[in-house]
Amino acid sequence: MKVLFCLAVLCATWISPSIARSTNNRIVGGEDFTIEQVPYQASLIYNDNHWCGAVLLRQNFAITAAHCFDVPDFNNFREVYRIRVGSTYINREGIVATLIDVTLHPQFDVDTYNFDVAVIQICDCFTWTERIQPIALPAANQHTLEGSLGLVTGWGRLWYQGPIPDILQGAEMPILNRDRCLETYAQINPITDSMFCAGSFYGGLDSCHGDSGGPMVLNGEVIGLVSWGIACAQVDFPGVYTNISFLRPWIDQQLP
Question: Which of 58, 52, 190, 201 has its CA nearest to residue 136?
């Protein structure tokens, strides 16, 4: 569920899951991928449907966007959420595992999506294979150079309000100039240290609804999670990602 922000009122307004960047969506400008290419990719399932992406870090732990748990029945998360690993497809194959615990960042702000990260503890019900593998975290407070290409994958919509793919999608997204990103979103929502922009200021390349919580990977490390933006692939409004390097110390505290 990639969250959309409302331009008309210049405020951070969460749009319903049917059009937010975490439910039922795909990479805009992407291509088909197999799970063997990105075995750390997982699908967070809510009420039996793909809801968000997630990223495997340890045998029983994954991370995703905190806003993926902004639902009215979160207190019953063990009943309404599952996680699918080891599948190229959005709603079939692989292993569907139960969630043991969910920890949202204590400073997560549901209005601004600051500190948009959650750590998931998963049941001990699968082993590592060529289709199920963890990925490394970046060093804390590591600087990523503008123009670096991060690989973003997920099952988000092909374009804004477009069709939902059956097959995992992926595309390389360049890290964008931070000052321009700050200026672009200044009157809409603050770009904080826990965020960065990637994609394009010219449209045509972006994550979209259903990609939220999914990974951006660079040099074998998950540097970002799909978080929010204005619709999908809109001119002047690139995607905004959770900055995992900035949040690394907190994530480490949640892992055994």
Answer: 58
Q: Can you tell me the distance from the alpha carbon of 38 to that of 107, in angstroms, rounded to the nearest whole number?
A: 30
CA dihedral sign, ordered 175, 237, 246, 75? negative
Is 50 among the catalytic positions?
Answer: no
Whether 118 is covered by a domain: the verdict is: yes
CB 237 within 8 A of CB 230: yes
**Strands (E) located in 17-138:** 31-32, 41-46, 49-58, 61-64, 81-85, 95-104, 118-122
Q: How many domains does the chain have?
A: 2
Does residue 166 have an active-site annotation?
no
Q: Is residue 236 assigned to a domain?
A: yes
The active-site residue, picked from 22, 87, 212, 227, is: 212
Print the domain residue range for 198. Answer: 135-245
CA dihedral 22, 26, 30, 33 (to 10 degrees): 100
List, for residues 81-110, the tens digit of each pLDDT value.
999 999 999 999 999 999 999 999 999 999
**Which CATH number belongs to the domain containing residue 49 in this structure?**
2.40.10.10
Kindly report the CA angle at 188 between 183 and 192, in degrees rounded to 5? 65
This prediction has a pTM of 0.89
